[in-house]
Amino acid sequence: MRKGGTFWVAASALVLASCGGGGSSSGGGGATGGGPAPTPTPPPAGQVFSVPAAESLTSAEVGTIIAQAAAEARARGVAATIAVTDRVGNVLGVFAMPGAAPTARIPSAPDGSNQDAQGLTIPSAGAAIAKAITGAYLSSGGNAFSSRTASFIVQEHFPPAPTTAGLESGPLFGVQFSQLPCSDLAARASDGFIGPKRSPLGLAADPGGFPLYQNGVVVGGIGVIADGSYSFDPNVLDRDPDVDEAIALAGTVGFEAPISIRADRITADGTSLRYTDVEYSQISNVAGASFTGTAGALVPVTGYYMGTALLAGAAYGSEASGVRASTAAEFANRDAFVLSNGAGASRFPVRGGTDAGDVASPLTAAEARVILDEAFTVMSRARAQIRQPLDSRAQVTISLVDTRGQVLGLVRSPDAPIFGIDVSLQKARTANFFSGAFAANELLAAGGEVPQFVARTRAFLGDPTALTGGFAFSDRAGGNLSRPYFPDGEVGQPNGPLSRPIARFNPFSTGLQSALIVGNLAQHLAFVTGASAQDTPRSCTSLPQVTAGATRLDNGIQIFPGAVPVYRGNVLVGGIGVSGDGIDQDDMISFLGLNNGALRASGGLNNAPNAIRADRIVVAVGSRQVRLRYVNCPFAPFLDTAAQNVCEGL
User: Fold this and answer.
1) Contact of 116 with 5, CB cutoff 8 Å
2) 417: closest CA among 149, 42, 223, 155?
3) How far apart are CA 358 and CA 355, in angstroms?
4) What is the CATH number that goes with domain 326-516+553-627?
5) What residue spans carry the region label Disordered (predicted)?
């Protein structure tokens, strides 16, 4: 892995170079910015979800956002690289001020060593794009999350601070390794304007990325880097005068997130999240800033942005955006949204399993549809965890795969956060992969450090046959083994076998998750910087291909809850993954949706049999016996009934 990191550095050295009021400035000069969220539009008759209005950024508005950010940078005496994207990740502008550093550095591990993405020098433009995508992708009409919010929820303790050691890891631990440049789901600039687009560095935990809103609707994100460090905030108990964050916040003036849905109005496990450490009252009066005459230049970014002009964004929900309402032929439920190819065809139509050569009775198209329909119904009834106002409905993306990791269908609610599209597919593939008889052999056949994780897992579990299909792993169970402490958060305990030891851990190197895709990241960075003409393929990992050009994990793995494997009797036939709301909601929608779909399909489908679920695995920790967990469902999750413990006994 050190060799891979050296390659990244060498490649990087070649780099040269009021709520929703689009146009109405309310930030700066002591103003608070933003306002209450507009009253949601009632859902159409016969539907339970409102559809976001068709809002989008014009090229002139992109220029205003950049100019405002640049004005704040000048006021602070620094030079910044600034990126703006639309909601589905299309890069609308990348701007470098005179003197802006072309590169930034990722921090090393706590012990000074470097694995995976740690210690690398990266293009500043790539860092700015990743921050902008993070703000856009994590947000919706019910929640506004920034890259500082991302930092808050991906670290080894939640909330992250020196005094919180001993608490469990963040609820979205590992989400930073999603939206990867190698993902087969994420679109590329060469695909035209459809999204969701990939990110050059996955999601960012470095403050300086915010969502952009118009009339309460997410229309994009802004990302800024000026301090030369692409990092994270390890201590949420203080307030950081972060220059990147101040500059990016200035860019949002007139495009602010509604106050009522910002991260600090949303709780997870009783903890209020963090939106920003810099307030609007602390930035300059940037109203009236004009892109014309702003010193600096648009910057081309290979694979992302031509650099010749500012662009207008796609309106989310339109065919041009690549995410739209389904047709009756695609899903009967009128609330359903799908991914489209920009020409009217669903990118992931419902179909039967492609693994007839491996499985005696693969999932049929009818069964796939029933499972997705029932999971969607569970979501539609569920109370949201991360949305305002309280008692909103959960909104997520649901993905179903066969044992080869091929997508059998993907459906989402209208306003689910974009990040959950790629993540739900990662989760489905991960649950399927680690539950299969093929997992150990394919990991052993991979390159780099990856094979070592098999031996570590077998030694840790005291099971020489681990990862050969004997147990069914949910993403929650696999996540238990992917934390730098086992049990999760308990300081002084060893790391899980799929994680880095705590002295070598930070969000840029999580363990197997990052080791699987570091080669793809290195190859992609070489392409972005011009060191290579060859981009990373649309297939993550060096695992053996199971079909031409495809592995079982073509967009990497995910290590936080929200997925379960699918069985027919005792035989694995696939995986279902859910992402976009609280992790317990995601768990419930996948687990209960599969249960209900199996009952309706009447084809012998089921959740994993109790006897082989990973919560039957017990690990000796000192004098204790610690059991893995399978799923955690919310106690009283539904809006239409007072039913409790709805997953109990299933």
Assistant:
1) yes
2) 149
3) 5
4) 3.30.450.150
5) 25-45
The two tokens of residue 513 are 């998750």
pLDDT of residue 4: 36
Residues 395-414, buried b or exposed e (16+ Cβ, 10 A)? bbbbbbbbbbbbbbbbbbbb
Count the neighbouring beta carbons within 10 Å of the beta carbon of residue 3.
8
CA 394, CA 417: separation in Å to the nearest integer? 11
User: Left (φ > 0), alpha (ψ -120 to 50) or beta: where does 220 sit?
Assistant: left
For the chain, the structural domain boundaries read 20-35+55-110+120-309, 326-516+553-627
Of the chain, the percentage scoring pLDDT greater than 90 comes to 92
Tokens of 597: 């779909």
Q: Does domain 20-35+55-110+120-309 sit in CATH 3.40.50.300?
A: no
Q: Which two tokens stand for residue 478?
A: 């696999």
Q: What is the mean pLDDT of residues 401-423?
A: 98
Q: What is the pLDDT of residue 39?
A: 64
Which two three-digit tokens encode residue 92?
A: 């609308």
Q: In DSSP terms, which residues pair with 566 in a beta bridge?
A: 574
Give pLDDT, residue 137: 98
pLDDT per position as a tens digit, 60-113: 999 999 999 999 999 999 999 999 999 999 999 999 999 999 999 999 999 999
Across residues 117-142, what is the average pLDDT? 98
Total count of residues recorded for the chain: 650
8 Å CB contact between 8 and 200: no
> Measured between alpha carbons, how far is 365 from 219 in angstroms, rounded to an integer?
35
Q: Between 243-251 and 59-75, two packed helices, what is the crossing angle to 10 degrees?
A: 140
